[in-house]
Design goal:
By secondary structure, this protein is mainly alpha-helical. It has one domain: de novo design (two linked rop proteins) (Up-down Bundle), CATH 1.20.1440. The chain is about 75% helix and about 0% strand. It has four helices and no strands. Helix 1 runs antiparallel to helix 2 and helix 2 packs antiparallel against helix 3. The radius of gyration is 16 Å and the shape is elongated. The chain starts with 10 loop residues before the first helix and ends in an 8-residue tail after the last helix.
Amino acid sequence: MATIRRFEDIKAWQQARIIAKEIHHLTQKENFRKDFSLIDEIKRSSGSIMDNIAEGYERDGNKEFIQYLSISKGSSGETRSQLYRALDYGYISQEEFDARYEQILHISSLIQNFIQYLKNSGLRGNKFK
């Protein structure tokens, strides 16, 4: 695994940043723009994926980091669920849904693999050095 010096180095965070931006663009579509509550929810949950990775990393302890990674993974599931609603309401096409769904599923997998790595590594975090 590559050396991580800041949260911006984490692949899952990088991918989460991309999906948050793509979700934002989807919500700007004409038929989507009027559903303020779904827009708010899906933008918050997609942003939460990257934000919880960053917050957990900055806490400098791997136990806390794993907890925040778990929350981030939960936010990825929430975003996938909200994508279903956007599809069911006709706000996005099947192709748009499929592409974003696969991206978020990949992010979730990256997060899960990172959690497993941290659990198995024996590392405790910077605040314990």
